[in-house]
Amino acid sequence: MDETDVRQKACAFIAKIDVSNIREDLSPYVTAVNAKIKKDELGEGESGYTITKPNGKHIITVNSLETDERQRFTICHEIAHIVLDLESSHEEVPSWSYAKRHPNEIACDTFAAELLMPYQQWRSLVPKEEPSMELIQRMADLFGTSFPAAASRFASLSDMPCAFVTMERGAVRYAARSTSLRQAGAWISPKSIIPAGSVAHRLRSSGNSAADTDEVSQDTWFDNWEKGLDLWELSRHYARTDTTTSLLWFDSGDLPEVEVNRFGTRVKDDGGLAELTGQLSWPGRSRRR
Description:
Layout: H1 3-15, H2 27-32, E1 35-40, E2 48-52, E3 58-63, H3 68-84, H4 103-116, H5 119-125, H6 133-143, H7 147-157, E4 162-168, E5 171-177, H8 179-183, H9 199-206, E6 210-217, E7 230-238, E8 243-249, E9 259-260, E10 266-267
Parallel strand pairs: 1-3
Antiparallel strand pairs: 2-3, 4-5, 4-8, 6-7, 7-8, 9-10
């Protein structure tokens, strides 16, 4: 089951439910999967789990010691396990970490994000302006999610060329891209090191938790990309967990015109024959140097 499948299943699930008040109350989701929420003090790093009774009732237990936004995410994550019928595989790996996490857990995170920030609501409420720390935080507060979750959603659904990159211990773990970037074949390699020259690299090198926004070259981030074009990078580094996030965006007019194959990979110019124009290219009297 790939990311697209997960998102489609989430949208199908949401379509059957009244989500008009979902930003304040997740109970419609809970009721739809025949579940009950229980809050308890769990161990550090343990966000929650689900037990299914013989009668088919699901008991979702969440860690009452965690923040409200984290508890909301955990509820939706556990609902994803129920709807997608995927077994849990937490295995002592922190929920914020992409390293060595089981595909089932990543799929349920994707499903949870769709539930917390429904497509139609997000599109109707997100301001039609360039991103900023304030804008992303405003959207996170509005939907009761974390800053990284809101930034990732912004990138995925943005009309402008936009990407959100999650990094851990100096390496890229995941990149969410807008439709225009995917269509252009823009690619950020997973497991690659944080590129030198990026805001993320500068912040992580400082060794302190910090945030900053600056302009960098597009080819700093995107593989096999045209040089000479810039983008904006809004980055945050969390020193305690050694995780870094970057939101990247630029104007549509600065998107290189490229050809991609049916797999979404950029097609390089092989220097073949030029397109026929009907004009004879005979030598003139002058020559360009």
